[in-house]
Amino acid sequence: PSPLPALSPRCPRVPRPVPQCGATAPPGGHGGHCTALRGLRVRVPEGPGGALFGFSVALHRETERRERNEPDKAIIEDMWLGVTVASQRQPPGRVLACAHRYTRVLWSGAEAQRRMVGRCYVRGNDLRLDLGDEWQTYHNEMCNANTDTDETGMCQMGTSAGFSANIIYFGAPGAYNWQGTDYMLQRETWDLHDFSYPNTRNGNTYIGYTAEVRSAVLQRDAVTLVTGAPRYRHTGAVLLLSRGARQALNRSLLLPGPQVGSYFGSALALADLNNDGWQDLVVGAPYYFERKQEVGGAVFVYMNEAGGFQQLPSLVLTGPSYSGFGFALASIGDINQDGFQDIAVGAPFEGPGKVYIYHSSAEGLRDQPRQVISGAELGPTRIKTFGYSLSGGLDMDGNSYPDLLVGSLSERVVLLRARPVINILDKTFTVTPSKVDPAQCTPKSCMTVTLCFSYNQSAGDPNYSERITLQYTLEADKDRHPPRVRFSGSQSATYTGDFSMPDTRCQTQELLLLDNVRDKLHPIVLSMNYSLLERPRTFQLGPHSLDAFPVLNQDQSHENETKIEFQKECGSDNQCYSNLQLRSSFVTEQNQVNGTQVLQYSRDVRKLHLSINITNVPSAPWNGEDAHEALLNVTVPPSLLPSSVRPSGACTFGDTVLCELGNPFKRNQRAELTITFEAIGIMLDTREVEVWLDLSTQSTQGDLQPVLAKLLVDYSIQSSLSIASSHIQSYFSGTVVGESAMKQEQDVGSPLTFDFQVSRARRCPDPLTLGSRTTTNGGRPPCPPRAPRAPPGNAPWGRAAAAPSSSSASSPLPLSRRVPQGSAGSPGGSRIAAPFALLFAASGVSVPVPDPLCPLPDALSPLCPPSQCDFFQRTRYYRIMPKYHAVRIRQEQRYQPGGLLPRRRRKKLWVTKWQEPDKYY
Asked: Which residue intervals define the domain Integrin alpha first immunoglubulin-like in the entry (predicted)?
């Protein structure tokens, strides 16, 4: 429900005190089953049980006299007089009441037959019979009681009814075996024409259950009778009937219902919802349901398209489960005086019952209710099935707003009177200056907020001059924490005040700027919202004026906001377009691979220095302006640990390194930063180091992208190459074959396999000394200096050169490396020995070993021949077992001692299976 409802439950105008709000039907009567409003006042005389509460007392007295005059021709007991009531809504203001169970008695005695034909009565504004008014003297019995149910003998006319200036119409759903029909009487100057819907032999459809007559439905100037048939083909339907030949009502359009058993068409209303001059159609289906969506009842809206309707509705409104939403509908006029007709929807089974008020607009009916009125809100009166019947569209209290009468089955009728609607006209909300310069602000004044209001009544009553009070709230920077401003005399950025009209026209408030404001790029947003300060309402008997209880127009916005810009050096548009650019490099690493710096890894690497250069230099006439809140965010990998930055204090260390460049970082400004990292996580498996640099600013710059500072890690070691086998020998024998006779690889001879070993260079060994076990200084002599390398043609394999003298060695050792040309082998073959040298050093004697980190000198001065030094000894073949590494000698290449060919192995006679296994030597 709206906090300020436009409709207010108040007591109707009655000639005597009534014990409760609304009015009470006599005990046992069907009070409130159907209600109606008429133009002047509501009279509630007393009457016996079964009378029409509110309108039927005088009518009931007339029927009492008829009962005495014709006791054997009609039965009026339990005829439900007042099942339908209607007001003519214009002078002279006639009233219509119907009794659909009015019964005619044919014949008498044992053969008496009864026909429930129904009957309607028309009376004047004072509920009295005027014999001079032919509207009132006409019998209004359209059904023929002398027929049976196949015709109109059980038509139950009056189930629905209404009338206008010259037309009266009735619905008779029991005619033609409950097919139903409608009757329309049109009065002209001297004639009375009656029309009816013919018998189409479509029984049990209940045509005439509801009915409305209006012009501008199918044609501008011709009337159309719209009637509901809630049991048409079990889904329900709405028929649009037009005048035809021979006093018949012809069907022009049929709108089918959406669901079996929904009772589509049991309630309907016509109203010009979008103010286009055509009547739109609203249809209720109170038993429509959707189990999964928990929907109980629906209202279907069909918009008139210049005299035509679509088969599908333009809008469907639904209510909660078991609510009976759409059980009653009423066109209630323009209750808020916005120029569009409004609709009331009853949901009598939703708790104690509710009434939904829907406003409309140029697009049609709105899909959300503006107000929901519950029977539980109506003071001490306990009401059930509130909203069972509705009637509206008339101004009952003379305040220019139409009111609504709501009926129920609790012997209560509630008159809801519309309250005046206030339009806020001149709503001034300004701040001066519009651009604030922090340098011009003082501790007592910086910005001035001005607020002005004026109003009028939506109905346009010039005499309405009630004093109303608006309560408003000003809030600055509501989406920022903390805000950048506060109101004078308070530490808060929120201010609440009252505005009394028409006494007060304008109010002002001072707004102060806080110190150390960082964000000067985004404007300060100042919002204002207001509401109507309502007077306390007290429940009282009898009607009273509602002028002191207005409501605000809910279609107007009750919120405003304005923006206060900061004075910036950013051009005439006050929008800053920056041009931040960044360059970075690691300081000490000069090697590059494809433009990427390379770090030569070693144990001595402890720190890395990253140099960052940032500029804001214009590259076009429209950029390079101040960069507000310029920040540099440095994302560091786990292998690096930030330790310091130059200049000191420019950055803060956390999960990332955050550097504040300036607020603002001005035009043509430059900044240089050097961040030092500790290389705590660079390991042997580290291949690269990536540092991401991300510039950001609150100014406008669309090309800001993260920049990658990348460093490749190169881990290089010095290695040595050596032959794994210390002694390799091979024997050649057999038939000598020329080169031209060699067809296969194995024809060349036996393969030779060499194993080479690559290893990391070790620490440089000490030089070899002979004749002395200790050096002159008591320690090991240092490694001899590296001699110049000989060219490849003068490799030191076949010559000896003098080595540099060393003061730490008593006598250097001559060493020569030569490949022997050959040696005598076994008979019939030649022997090739691989070059080798075995050095046996006694305890305490240093021996230089060939190593890439400390290579042998190209030549050593000979002190004595190797054979005389008694240091190098040739290994005897019989003392060292030969080693072969995965060399396969095929069977046909095996040689026997003495150079003979291998003997052919013969199969033993006692061996049943022979297999020559492969062997590896």
From this structure: 418-569
671 occurs within a structural domain? yes
Query: Which has the higher per-residue pLDDT, 41 or 329?
Result: 329
pLDDT at 851: 43
Q: Which of 508, 532, 566 is the last residue of a domain?
A: 566
Q: Of 12-21, 182-191, 649-658, which range is least confident?
A: 12-21
Distance CA 32, CA 381 (A): 14
| Contacts of 594 by beta carbon, 8 Å cutoff, 6+ apart | none
Q: For the chain, what's the residue count?
A: 921
Residue 519 has a pLDDT of 81
- Do residue 545 and residue 628 come from a single domain? no
Same domain, yes or no: 746 and 858: yes
The position carrying tokens 């109101």 is 487
Compute the distance between CA of residue 274 and CA of residue 269 in angstroms, rounded to an integer: 15
Which residue from 441, 426, 324 is spatially nearest to 385, judged by alpha carbons? 324
* Confidence label for 807 from pLDDT (cuts 50, 70 and 90): very low
Residue 855 has a pLDDT of 45
Q: Rounded to whole angstroms, how far apart are CA atoms 880 and 83?
A: 132
Taking a C-beta distance cutoff of 8 angstroms, is the pair 230, 242 a contact? no
> How crowded is the C-beta side of 614, counted as CA atoms within 13 Å?
26
DSSP state of 844: T
Coil, helix or strand at residue 267? strand
Residues sharing a CB contact under 8 Å with residue 709, sequence separation 6 or more, in sequence order: 584, 585, 586, 610, 690, 691, 692, 693
Which tokens hold the place of 678?
A: 């500790």
Question: 525 lies in which domain range?
Answer: 422-566
The verdict on 654 and 773 lying in the same domain is: no
Give me the amino acid identity at 539.
Answer: F
* Residues forming beta bridges with residue 127, ordered by sequence position: none
